[in-house]
Amino acid sequence: MRMVKLSLFLIGITLIAFACTPKTLHDDSPANVDKENNTEEVLDSGETDSNKYDDEQSLLDNPMSEFFLPSGTNAHYKGEGNEFAELDIEVTVLDESHVVVDEDNGGVSSRTIYQIQEDKISILSSEPIDFDDPMPTSDMISKMIPLEIYLQKPFEVGSSFGKWTIIETDATTETPFKTFNDVIVNEMDEDDFINRKYFAKGFGEIKREAIMITENNDDFIVTSTLQSVD
User: In the chain, what are the domain boundaries?
Assistant: First the structure.
């Protein structure tokens, strides 16, 4: 039974879409990321901000936008515990309310579409893709219904949304990229499995951690941790 649960755990890690996202949504960010000149109409935006990592710069009033990297950013996550824990993501800002994150973990390529509101970020869609698939159009997005809440205020220990609970708001988290302070940690605890997401302002999700609790206290841990940002 333990081996069956371990197998299911590893499969689950492979299929979970990583949602680390752009630093800020810019009024002048590119909305039409047409790599092959084959995309249809997408949401309005403009030029990409060249100061991608300026933590003090915010061009939007909505503070929830601080949990996203800039449009056009590519980030790599070091994986430990499983061959599919290593991740590459690419961020596309469609407009000040919608962001797309394409992720490749070496086994599955997926696309997650986020909606940003005043007090929360919701997931509108998360599906496997080919990376030459065109960006969603404004008409497509207008028909989407939120699937779940990704991050929500208030950022207070004990606050919960869906299956997630905020367990820390001032954590210090070391990553290969840098050490982050004031990190928000969300946790989902179900039976023998614990999932955690670590969020830092200016970068979004900097770490993902999945833990399978074992009977002999030798826990099986899989992590994906921010290593580089380009």
Answer: 2-229
Q: Is the pLDDT of residue 11 over 60?
A: no
Indicate yes or no: pTM above 0.90. no
What phi and psi values does residue 71 have, to the nearest 5 degrees?
-60, 135
Q: What is the pLDDT confidence band of residue 63, given thresholds at 50, 70 and 90? A: confident
Q: Is 115 helix (H, G, I), strand (E, B) or coil?
A: strand
- In the block, tokens 């994150």 appear at 101
Please return the burial class of 119, using the count of CB atoms within 10 Å of its CB with bins 0-12, 13-18 and 19+: exposed
Q: Tell me the backbone φ, ψ of residue 48, rounded to 5 degrees.
A: -80, 135
- Tell me the residue type at 122: S
Q: pLDDT band at 41, cuts 50/70/90?
A: very low
Classify the C-alpha dihedral 108-75-68-170 as positive or negative.
positive
Residue in 139, 195, 198, 151 with CA at minimum distance from that of residue 171: 198
Instruction: Please choose, from the candidates 180, 102, 114, the residue with its C-alpha nearest in 3D space to the C-alpha of residue 151.
Output: 114
Phi, psi of 27 (to 5 degrees): -65, -25
Topology, domain 2-229:
YmcC-like fold (2.40.360)
Give Cα 3 to chain centroid, integer Å.
29
d(C-alpha 47, C-alpha 169), whole Å: 33
Q: What is the rounded CA–CA span in Å between residue 153 and residue 159? A: 8
